[in-house]
Design goal:
The chain is mostly helical. Helix content is 50%, strand content 0%. The protein has helices at residues 13-16, 27-31, 38-46, 50-55, 66-70, 77-95. The chain is elongated and about 60 Å long. It starts with 12 loop residues before the first helix and ends with a helix. The mean pLDDT is 86.
Length: 96
């Protein structure tokens, strides 16, 4: 529910700009050219689970943007992928 007044000349666009949560449709995984699972990577990133991110092969992400493009909920999966990839890369450098 938006707390925005609607007038005769309003376009209604403030009502449809809100991003939704992932609905688990799997379209991002279906279209991924690197055969990754962006939703699993997103949740592993949010948990800061570097070991799981490595198992999910996040470093193979080419950041093409298809996961975000096909998402019906408009979740910016590419941003999560980039951040997750960065987290793993930083963890690898710290261990050396």
């Amino acid at each position: 529910q938006a707390n925005v007044p609607i007038y005769k000349g309003s376009s209604g666009s403030p009502l449809f700009n809100k991003k939704l949560e992932c609905i688990g449709c799997g379209k991002c995984s279906e279209k991924c050219p690197s055969f990754l699972t962006p939703t699993a990577i997103k949740y592993a990133y949010l948990d800061k689970n570097v070991d799981l991110l490595k198992k999910l092969n996040v470093t193979k992400c080419v950041q093409c943007g298809l996961c975000s493009y096909v998402c019906p909920s408009r979740v910016e999966m590419t941003d999560y992928m980039a951040k997750a990839k960065d987290l793993v890369m930083k963890a690898n450098t710290i261990k050396k």
